[in-house]
Structure formats: C-alpha cells, structure tokens
Amino acid sequence: MLNCVYRLVAPRTFEPIQVEMDSAKGNVLVRPTHLSICNADQRYYQGRRSESVLAAKLPMALIHEGIGTVLRDDSGTCKRGDCVVMLPNNPHEEDPCIAENYLRTSEFCGSGYDGFMQECVLLSPSRIVPLPKSINKNVAAFTELVSVAVHAVSRFGMFSHSRKNTIGIWGDGNMGFIVSLVLRAIYPAAHLIVFGRNAYKMEDFTFVDETHLVHEIPKGIAVDHAFECCGGEGSSQAIDQIIDTIMPEGTVSLLGVSEQPVLVNTRMVLEKGLRLFGSSRSGRADFAATVQLYQDNPTILSYLEALVNQTYAIESISDMAQAFEADTRKSMGKTIMEWNV
Amino acid sequence: MIVAAILAGGSGVRMGNPDKPKQYYQLGTKPVLAHTIDKFCAHGQFDVVLVLCPETWLQQTRDLIERYCPEYSNGVHVAAGGQSRTDTVLKAIEWVDIHCEVEDDSIIVTHDAVRPFVSLRIISDNIEAAERFGACDTVIPATDTIVASENAATISEIPDRRNLYQGQTPQSFKLAKLKEVLLSLSDAEKEILTDACKAFVLRGEPVELVKGDIANFKITYPHDMRVAHAMLGVDEC
How many CB pairs under 8 A join A and B? Predict the structure, then answer.
C-alpha cells in the first residue's frame, strides 16, 4: 500500500514522503490516532542534536509515543477497530540476559528509524499491546513514557535492598511526576519525597508525602533510595545531591538524558557502597505491565490526565509544525497530536 | 452500507497498446489501480469495494487484483463501466442494486483509480460528509488564476480565485439520492456533465466540500506518471 510518511528533513521542516509499504502477511496494520511529543523528538525538531547526528539520522519520521486503531491483522492477535499502543522498540534477536531495549541490534522508531508520524504503521504482532476500550486516549498516547517509568521501577525492585521506607525522586518534570506515581502504586507504604526546582510544579504532586526545593532541603533529610529524573544540565547537580542525601547501600536509578558527560562524586559512591544503574526505554513486558497498572489502579489515569497540556488536531504539515512549536513553549505536560492524515 | 466505487473506466484499448489506460501502468511494484484498491481496502470501513473497468479489461483486472492485492482479492468485485463517467457511476449503482441490500442511508464513495495517493483521512472525511450532507466533493484551493473564455479567443471573465477550487475525488453520496438525481438528467444535461457532483448542483442539492490534498493528483499524462514515480523515489519510468 502507498503510505505517506511525514519525515523531518531538516530542523523545523517536515515533508510528506510517499513510500510503498510492504504488507507482508502476519503483520498488523495500524492507523495512528493519538501521538505524543517527547523531548527527544524536540531535540531533533529544533536541531539540538549534533550536526553529525542530524546528518546521520535525518530524514526521519519523529514520534515514538502513540496509539492507534487496528485496520488489519493477519496474525489474529487483534480485530479491526481495536485500540492498541504501538511499541517503538523493534528487537531482532532474543538474549537470555539482556532486555530487548538494551540490545544494540534493536531498532527504535524516531531514533534512526521512522517513527509514528505516518499515515499507517505496519508492526509485528509483538509490537502492539491492546488497550481497554474506555481508556482516555490522550493519556494512553504517552503510555510509552509511563512504560519507561514502570521499567525503571521494576529494575529498582530487582537491584535494591529490601528497606524501602523512604524514596527520593529528583525532578519535577513529566518523568519525575510519572515515576512518583508508579512508585506510589507499586510501593504504597513508602514515604515519597520529591525534590525539584519549581514550587508551582511540585504543588501538583499531591500524591507524594513531601516536596522540597533543591536549594532548600532541610537538614537531616535522608532517603533509602533515589531516582534521578532531571536530565540535561540538572543531572549533575541532582546526582551530587542524591549522593549526599542517600543512605549507605542505597540504589540510585538514573533516568535523565544528558547530551554532555556528567561528573559523579565516585569517592562518596564508594564510601557509601551505592549502586547506580541506568534505565532507558522499555520492552513489551513493561508495556503490558503498564496497561495492567492502568486497569488495577484507575486513579493513575486520573493523575496522568493532569499531564495532558494541549491537544492539536493534525491534518496537514502546518498543523504538525504548529503542535511542535507550541510544545517548545510549554513548561510541563504533554502535547498530544490527534492524528488524522 | 458503505460502498467504494473505484472508477477505472478510461479508454478501453486492448493490452499491449502503449496508450493503455494509466490505471494499468506500473507504479513501484504494482499497477496504479492496485495501489488505489489497497488504500480503500485498508481503510476498512467499506462493506463493498467495486472496481469498474473497461469491458475489454474485465478478466485482466481480476487477474491483477488477485496478483497484486491477494489479501483483499476475495472482497473486491469487478464490473464493466460505461461509456462516460456518469454511465460508469450508474453502472456501479446498478451493480449494487442487484448484488446488495441497499438501505436508505447507504453511502457510495466514488474515486478515480488514477488517484492512488488518496489518503485515509480524505476517505474518512468523505464518508462523514456524505452521511451528514448527502453529497460531497473533494477539493483543493485553486492556485492558478482561472480564465474563462466564451469564444476560445478572448477572455470573457476572470473569476475571483479566492472562491475557486480544483475538484478531485472521491465524490461521495447517499446512494439512493445519487440514483434519483442521475436518472432525472436529460440527455442534454448529461452531455455537459463532467461529474456526479455537478448533477447535484444542477438540481439545487447541497454538496459539502471536503479538504483534498495536492498529493491526491490525477495521473493523466505521461508527465504525471513521472511525478508519481518521483514521489515514490522510483528512478525509472
């Protein structure tokens, strides 16, 4: 089938490209309906990646967070009209020790391979997870982001010691909000403390136990484990503060993406016997766990609704540019594109 | 019931002729017609997909569908079109009357086979507009200045371009209303009729505009085929 792919050909420039889609049997044809813009997409859109990266990866369709409607499924996994979340990670091998999202051979939509800004997306049946019919589609659009938090919290469960009385979350942005929410659901008895730079943002973390501005942390505060959800220039300061605040043998989960190398006070990491581990992206099991989490804890969806910042009806290239430009101006939350091309 | 009528009439010259209808030309790995059929079948909202082709091309059309659209071939029907566009649409209505149970609110979406770049959005918008208004036409704003001339020698009028649009397809209708309007036409009216929407306008019936797309162009001339190949990134024409 002829399929129109909306590729970023240069910073701030989308172009529609017609491609002949291989409708090989056994795959699922999905029409995207709700796409969510991520900071990683913005880095390409605004040209904030290095020249060499842009030259290597563009032209490319952006977006790796999205849901869609099944148009055709020869595999029998779904029926036409089913609402599904699309998985951006495409593994080419299985490894008994390494998760699909860390295999170097895996492809990732919107990072070197076309993302979901397409008229239709052809996916293997393992690359979709069905969603409940009644789900809020604007929230479901960023299930991928939630699954990244679920993945990190699940790894935290594997790597950390059993005392989880107090958990600190550094970062008052989207990821900090979602990680806190997932921790609340998985560890309801834990005392959650959020550390951020913006009091007005932290006011919305109504489900945690304490919030503190990073420059006004009370003396004597300590956490058993910590999550770094800052990224960018904030990573360094956050990791420093975590190392100061965390109890010995605590686990530090790193989630923030930084374009620059980050200095780490390894002396104190050694002295305290800390475990630092990184998490990136997610796999099918994390998506399935996220959808299960939605079903088991419907209040999570209510909290996530607060993150839907603005929605844009997309029918043309100019609509896409408008949504991306508006997204650059938001201070928090998610921009959702109601995709109808 | 929602019916797709893909109009692949064109001229009925036999195969092997270099002037064969453009819908049978190869575009990428498939004939143009197969791409159009794929899009309508993938859309998934149609109860019937009917291809109307020249009578001399009936069997070849069936063969091409089986070869190039195997996943949909069981659900695609082929029938002979008529001499003119209007005749072909009437043939589609006749076929549906014979083979299907037409309801009052049945919709027919008519589309040129030689517009393979139609989008799913345009098809969906057509169905919704036809359900809402009874008739709709897919258009894009006119970009060239349109000049009218009564004598083919001098300008008689230059209409305000802001009010002008270029017609594309699909054109979609409530099936029963379309039948009523087309059958009411006199021979003289049929002669000046270039498409079914004009018949609605002649009868004073409202026709809603659906936003088209410049990519949804009609492959008419050899130049268009080159453009289509270029859009797909295919070098050889």
Answer: 54
pLDDT digits (tens, 9 = 90+) for A247-290: 999 999 999 988 889 999 999 999 999 999 999 999 999 999 99
Cis peptide before B170 (omega within 30 of 0): yes
Domains of chain A by residue range: 2-142+307-339, 147-278
Q: Which amino acid is at A185?
A: A
> Which residues, at least 6 apart from A159, have a Cβ–Cβ distance to it below 8 Å?
A251, A275, A277
Q: Which two tokens stand for residue A316?
A: 């043309």
| C-beta atoms of A72 and B38 within 8 A | no
- Nearest by CB to B121, which of A17, A74, A340? A340
User: Do the domains spanning A2-142+307-339 and A147-278 agree at the CATH topology level?
Assistant: no
Domain boundaries defined on chain B = 2-232
Q: What angle do CA B110, B111, B117 make, to 5 degrees?
A: 150
The average pLDDT across B82-101 equals 93
Among B127, B131, B135, CA closest to B167: B135
Q: Which residues of B touch A71 (CB under 8 A)?
A: 42-44
Q: Which residues pair with B26 in a beta bridge?
A: B31
Structural domain A2-142+307-339, CATH architecture: Alpha-Beta Complex (3.90)
Specify the amino acid at residue B202: L
Picking from B120, B211, B227, B234 by the largest number of A CB atoms within 10 A of its own CB, the best residue to mutate is B120
- For A107, the 3-state DSSP assignment is strand
How much is the ipTM here? 0.85
What does the alpha-carbon distance between residue A81 and residue A77 come to, in Å, rounded to a whole number?
Answer: 12
Q: Could B232 and A120 be called an inter-chain contact, meaning their C-beta atoms sit closer than 8 Å?
A: no
Return the CATH number of B2-232, one of 3.90.1150.10, 3.40.30.10, 3.90.550.10, 3.40.109.10: 3.90.550.10
> Would you state the CATH architecture of domain A147-278?
3-Layer(aba) Sandwich (3.40)
**CB-count burial class (<10 Å; 0-12, 13-18, 19+) for B206:** exposed
Contact of B116 with chain A, judged by CB distance below 8 Å, is answered with yes
As a whole number, the mean pLDDT across chain A is 95
CB-nearest to B119 from A4, A71, A81 is: A4
pLDDT tens figures, B15-27 = 456 678 889 999 9
Question: A7-22: buried (b, 16+ CB within 10 Å) or exposed (e) per residue?
Answer: bbeeeeebebbbbbbe
Supply the DSSP string of A112-180, one letter for each residue. EE--S-BS-EEE-GGGEEE--TTS-HHHHTTHHHHHHHHHHHHHHHHHS-S--SEEEEE--SHHHHHHH
**From the candidates B38, B46, B73, which should be mutated to test the interface with A, based on the most A CB atoms within 10 A?**
B38
Angle (CA) A311 A314 A317, round 5° = 130
